[in-house]
Each structure stands twice: as C-alpha cells, then as structure tokens.
Amino acid sequence: MNAFKTTSRLARACATLVLWACTLAAAPAFADDPSDADLSGDWGGARTQLHDAGIDFDIVYFSEFATNLQGGTSTKYAYAAEGSIASTLNLQTLFGWHGASFRVKFTNRNGDGLNQQAELNEIMPSQAIYGRGSVTRLSQFYLQQDLLGGDLRLKLGRLAVGDEFGDFPCEFMLLPFCGSQIGNLVSTAYNNPVSQWAAYGRYAFSPSFYGAVGIYQVNPSWLKNSQGLNFGSPHGTIGALLPYEFGWQPTLNGLPGQYKIGGWYETSSLDDVVLDENGGNRLQTGDPALKRGHEFGFFMSIVQQLTAPAPGSKRGLTAEVYWMLPDAHTATVDQQTSVALVYHGPFAARPDDLVGIGAARIHVNSHLSAGEALYNADLPDGMTPLDVQGSERSYSMFYRLQLLPSLYTTPELQLIHDPSGSSRNQDDVVFALRTVINF
To answer: Which residues form the signal peptide (predicted)?
Structure first.
C-alpha cells in the first residue's frame, strides 16, 4: 500500500467535506414548525384525528449510498435502502386499558452492500442498514404495559434485541458507530429488522436510574427470507438469550448524560471459534468444532454532553463511547471499542445540523489468531498460509445537513485500516451518503 497516496486522497476528501460544511454557516435554518415533522403532513387533518383516537403512524425511508475511493478489487457503487411503516395503538384511549399500548412495525430492506460488491473485507461494513436480506420483515409486534405510575414497563411479543439493550446513537453510517452492537457481533442476537419472541421488563429505581432484563428466543430460522412475515414461530429454536442492562441518566453541570452497563447469557450450544471436538486446532484438523454449552459477554456505553452555549441548549459537543466484550470462546471478534465526538448545531444559523468524528477498534479473537499462526507454523506443502488477524481500525467523519424537520442528508468519509484485521489488505477509503425521510 502506498501510504503517501492514501494520506493524500484522504486529506483532499476531508478538505472537501470541511469546506462544504463551512458554506452552510450562512444558510438559514428552516422554521421550527412542529407540523413539518413529517413530510406528508397532517393528511388533511386525518393524522391528528387518528392520534386523538389513539392511533399513531411512523413512516421512514433510509437510503445509504457508498463508493470506495481506495481498497477492494475495483471501484464500485452501492445503494442500500430501508423503508419502514409502524403503528402504535394507545389501548387506554381506544379501550380504556390503563397504561397499555400495542406496536407493530414492518421493515423492507433492499439494495447492495459495498463491502460485498468491491470485496473490501471489512468486519464492520460501511453501510449500517445493509444486511438480513432483501425482504420485508415483521420487526416489532408487541404489547406494552406500564405499571406503578410508569416506573415499571413490561413488553411481550416480537422484539429486536438492539431496540432494548445496548441502544446507542446512529449518526454515523459506519457500523461500529451505529446503534447496539450486540446484534452485530453476537451470532444469536438479532437487531432490527429481525425480531424474536421475547419478554422484557424495565424498572425505574429513580428518575435517573433504571434496570432492565429480558428473555429472547434464539432461533436462526428467523434469518431466512422466507420467515420475514411469519407471525408464528418456525422450527429451529436452540436456546434462550438473557440480556440485562443498568442505566444512569444524570445531569452533570447542567448537561445531560446517559451511562449504560450490561451483558448477556446465552444457553444454546455453539461452535468454539478454533478448537475441534478433540481439543485440537480445527483449522489444521478439519474435524467438527467443539461445542460450547453457553456464551456470555458485556457492554458499556457513555453519551455525555460536554458543552452548551446556554443552559438547557441541545447545541454543543457530545462524547460517545461504546465498549463491548463478546465471548472469547465463540465470537470471531472478542473486543470492540468506539469513541466519537459529535457537535450538535455547529453554526448558530444551523442549530439542527450535526458534525462528528470517530475512531473504532475491532479486535479479532486472540484464540482465532493463535490458531491461524499455529496453522501457518505447520503448513503442508503447497498450501497457502492464512492471514493472522489482529485489529481492524476504523475512522469516520460526517456532516449531517437537516434540510427540513422531516429530511436530512449526511455525507461521510471513512477510512478502514487493515480490513479484517489483516495488514495484507489495502486500507479502504469510502465516501458514503445517507438520506433519511420521515413521512
């Protein structure tokens, strides 16, 4: 890899993004009119009437375009999209059922992934919404019951693990900085758009401190496109996922924060990442994997506003930190860390825009790396050595332009160093563009 060429390309792209952002300083923001929150408006008054009757709709369209400026087999262009329609029924308004509601959500994903198209070899891809098949899925289907004045919240039905546990901002397109990482790195936990039968409980011990637990069905059949609209339960349940989380939401020096720590225990039988059933290196022996009777892991996240131009202002600098420790015996990645700084309202004339920069490290399981090194040390004649994987390091910067209350677009520049944790792979430089419309 020509390091000078990579640095030069990245510097030019960064300069272009920064100059483009600076030209927005003088551009006036839209009027802060709540009626503009949805692009389709109030539907001639019908939306307000439905809300008053206890029925709300959310219709959202995501698109993510990406192209590789460097890395991969050749320059490619990829476009992925996600459309969702959801409805929340206030059962108290509709039927007098105090504290109860019901939510249903359908999600369609389609398009292409740049990681696959250009063979970028990224562990955590450049397009966060690509994956889980080009298909429509039932993403949420659950009853919610609030008790004890709202301190206790229960949910029962079809839930996505990442919607309830380890939730994290998703201002970036690059996946290590976007949303809950449990469903990205734990093979039996599924984020949106895939849902599983589950039960969830959360109790607020105080206005700023809560604890949550859940139990989720583990069934890999939910990943099949054919099960996207299955309201029942396909064959193939192999265990249960038991996540937990504690959260603290303080106001420090007048600035809001959110601190979470949690983890999970999973009961299904899973393959060891490198050992065979006899305790040998299965990369060498080719024998069936050793089965582990469970797995567990931990996560931690911090979102803390650091500055504000005035008390109570949402404008200012926010720090975002995510750390995750998957199971060392069963997970391909045994540690992930991401750190980002996001400035809300970088210009007085653009109070709803965002600008951010972040860095992440995705560390390949040390047991797997040791197995790869052992394989290479005793390499049979004529066989190709394996890459001994280490860490994939990702860097990203973006500017989110809020064009309307219901519409924003985000150009983003990404650098992925040692894709797949291998120094043999050329660094990837990716330009990406996200557009989100709330209808």
So the answer is: 1-31
